[in-house]
């Protein structure tokens, strides 16, 4: 643990942030048990900040306490994924429409086009880790510019919770071309000053990705 982090933030917050990152990146798996004593040893701290961090994780929905088992990383069902992505689709499509209505600079659209080109190159190279990283930036482009912090923060939080599953879904080769084409259509509507079309395309794009992800989860876990 970085001593500088400890100076700036309470121990419970540092531990919470690191555990969230490990869960989202898949270093801690769904269903894995989190033992206070083991975590205290790992972070070289007492059990008190560990217990506080675990309570925060439970409150945010990352873990659950199972009787006779203890704190366990929550498994997300396909139904829950579909439910969350429907909310994301509503929020991000609204954000995209706001951006289209407000307008944007030429440099901004050029940066978005560059991002799209980099995604295409990553897909061709089958570098799906980089592709996913760039995909997050593409969607964040609209959230950062929608001038509505509530929409942006909620959508970002929900996407963070879905990070690991989205990574798996994006790595399916059959989906990549569809997603790139959807992004291209969204950009065309954006440049063409068609806010309602941007909103419709963004919503359809996210729901299509959600459907593919849910189908993948059902096949994988059935």
Automatic annotation (TrEMBL):
- Transcription regulation is among the record's keywords: yes
The HTH gntR-type domain, residue ranges: 9-76
The alphabetical list of record keywords is: DNA-binding, Transcription, Transcription regulation
Checking SUPFAM superfamilies in the record gives: GntR ligand-binding domain-like (SSF48008), Winged helix' DNA-binding domain (SSF46785)
Determine if Ion transport is one of this entry's keywords: no
Alphabetically, the GO molecular function entries are: DNA binding; DNA-binding transcription factor activity
* InterPro entries per record: GntR_C, TF_FadR/GntR_C, Tscrpt_reg_HTH_GntR, WH-like_DNA-bd_sf, WH_DNA-bd_sf
**One Pfam family linked to the record:** FCD
Cited CDD domains: WHTH_GntR
- Quote the protein name from its UniProt record: GntR family transcriptional regulator
Q: Which organism is it from?
A: Desulfosarcina alkanivorans
């Amino acid at each position: 643990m970085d001593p500088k982090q400890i100076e700036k933030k309470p121990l419970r917050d540092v531990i919470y942030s690191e555990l969230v990152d490990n869960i989202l990146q898949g270093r801690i798996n769904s269903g894995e048990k989190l033992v206070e004593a083991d975590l205290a040893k790992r972070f070289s701290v007492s059990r008190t900040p560990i217990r506080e961090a675990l309570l925060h994780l439970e409150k945010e929905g990352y873990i659950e306490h199972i009787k006779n088992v203890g704190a366990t990383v929550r498994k997300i069902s396909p139904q829950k994924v579909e439910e969350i992505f429907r909310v994301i689709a509503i929020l991000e499509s609204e954000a995209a429409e706001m951006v289209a209505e407000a307008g944007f600079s030429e440099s901004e659209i050029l940066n978005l086009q560059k991002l799209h080109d980099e995604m295409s190159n990553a897909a061709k190279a089958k570098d799906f880790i980089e592709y996913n990283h760039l995909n997050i930036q593409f969607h964040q482009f609209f959230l950062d510019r929608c001038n509505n912090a509530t929409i942006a923060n909620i959508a970002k939080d929900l996407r963070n919770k879905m990070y690991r599953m989205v990574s798996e879904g994006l790595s399916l080769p059959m989906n990549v071309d569809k997603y790139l084409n959807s992004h291209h259509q969204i950009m065309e509507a954006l440049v063409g000053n068609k806010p309602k079309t941007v909103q419709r395309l963004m919503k359809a794009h996210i729901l299509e990705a959600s459907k593919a992800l849910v189908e993948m989860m059902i096949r994988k876990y059935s």
